[in-house]
Design a protein that fits this description.
With 361 residues, the chain is mainly α. It contains 15 helices and six strands. The chain folds into three domains: 9-133 and 205-237, no CATH class; 138-199, no CATH class; 252-356, no CATH class. A four-stranded antiparallel sheet has the order 3-4-6-5. A two-stranded antiparallel sheet has the order 1-2. The relative contact order is 0.11.
Length: 361
């Protein structure tokens, strides 16, 4: 842990500034706070602020109680409900400041799963605003922000979607979903047609990644006063990893996805189905399977329970789903075969022992 004395916010000068700042107003800064232009604007007001002396009557010229109440709302909604509030009735400056303080608190929490959940919630909030832009034909305003966030070049295609360079598309495509495979896309002169909702998905993932990276770059602060109080409060959201002995061995395709979730990564739907169907078919009860997903950034007990029960055939007398075959997983980019997989055709057959070992025993 670093000791930064007065704990000044100098470390936030890591953010850069680009020409995009010339196109943005205060409302845009608050809607897309993860952009370097937004954070730089906020930091220009916060430079020299002492983290250890924030319990006065004012913070950045605003009532301290009001500022910290917004920080609490932002963190509690994101970590508790998986979504961030619009904050439309809050001044843009307080909104931006609350975002910066939330990042500082998360860095002090030093838990990647909390950070990932917050990042995804904030990305969803920005995605909603970007969706309004596209729906209201404000595409000329939306395009520079999307391009800057995702690192891609867009060509508006008659207001129905966008054309994206193949190289940019492949870097952002969801390879585990067949509809995103290049063979299933409309390609025009080296560019791939992408619908608005798909661009928004890419935007959301890029925004979440940006927030995660921002927190990771920060030196770990020492918090006092109200910031320390908020830090203590949010630890209740720290995922509780329930460990249950796994019988019969776990195939690498499943283990890779479990490890990703433990790191706070947001794995695709096909990977979640693999995990749920595998453990259900190994005889695990519903609650034990649900517990495996608690570290996922977008975890919702209600939604997870519904989906797991559906896979287990507990909903409306539906069928119990089988584990996807190895060939199916390979086609979805979810196969991580090792020698221990031997010649199995389905992950549920995995034992962790090669055929030769079994034959000689």
């Amino acid at each position: 842990m670093c000791n930064h004395g007065a704990q000044r916010l100098y470390f936030l000068s890591l953010f850069g500034v680009s020409l995009l700042a010339e196109l943005m107003g205060n409302a845009d800064y608050a809607k897309y706070p993860f952009l370097s232009e937004s954070t730089s604007m906020a930091i220009s007001r916060m430079r020299g602020l002492n983290l250890g002396a924030l319990d006065g009557t004012e913070v950045l010229g605003h009532n301290a109680e009001e500022v910290f109440s917004i920080v609490r709302v932002r963190l509690n909604d994101a970590l508790g409900n998986g979504d961030s509030p619009d904050l439309a009735d809050i001044s843009h400056e307080i909104s931006l400041a609350s975002f910066i303080f939330a990042l500082i608190i998360l860095r002090a929490a030093n838990d990647q799963r909390l950070t990932s959940r917050f990042a995804l919630a904030e990305a969803r909030r920005s995605e909603r605003y970007m969706g309004y832009f596209l729906a209201q034909s404000r595409r000329s305003q939306a395009v520079p922000i999307i391009e800057h966030t995702c690192g891609i070049n867009l060509t508006d295609y008659y207001g129905e979607g966008f054309l994206v360079d193949i190289s940019d598309y492949l870097k952002n495509a969801i390879v585990s979903q067949p509809s995103w495979k290049l063979v299933n896309r409309w390609v025009i002169a080296g560019k791939v047609f992408v619908k608005d909702n798909e661009i928004l998905h890419i935007f959301r993932e890029s925004a979440a990644k940006s927030i995660n990276q921002t927190v990771q770059k920060m030196p770990e602060p020492v918090l006092k006063g109200e910031l320390a109080n908020i830090l203590s409060e949010i630890m209740v959201y720290k995922p509780k990893v329930v460990v249950k002995p796994i019988e019969g061995g776990v195939p690498p395709c499943v283990q890779v996805q479990l490890d990703r979730m433990k790191k706070g990564e947001n794995i695709p739907h096909a990977a979640r189905f693999l995990i749920a169907s595998f453990f259900i078919n190994r005889g695990y009860d519903i609650q034990s399977v649900i517990n495996l997903f608690t570290t996922s950034p977008d975890f919702s007990e209600k939604i997870t329970r519904y989906q797991v029960e559906q896979i287990a055939g507990k909903k409306e007398n539906g069928p119990k789903y089988m584990v996807p075959s190895c060939s199916k997983l390979a086609s979805e980019g979810l196969c991580f075969k090792t020698e221990e997989c031997d010649s199995i055709k389905n992950p549920v057959q995995f034992t962790g022992k090669r055929q030769k070992e079994r034959s000689s025993s």
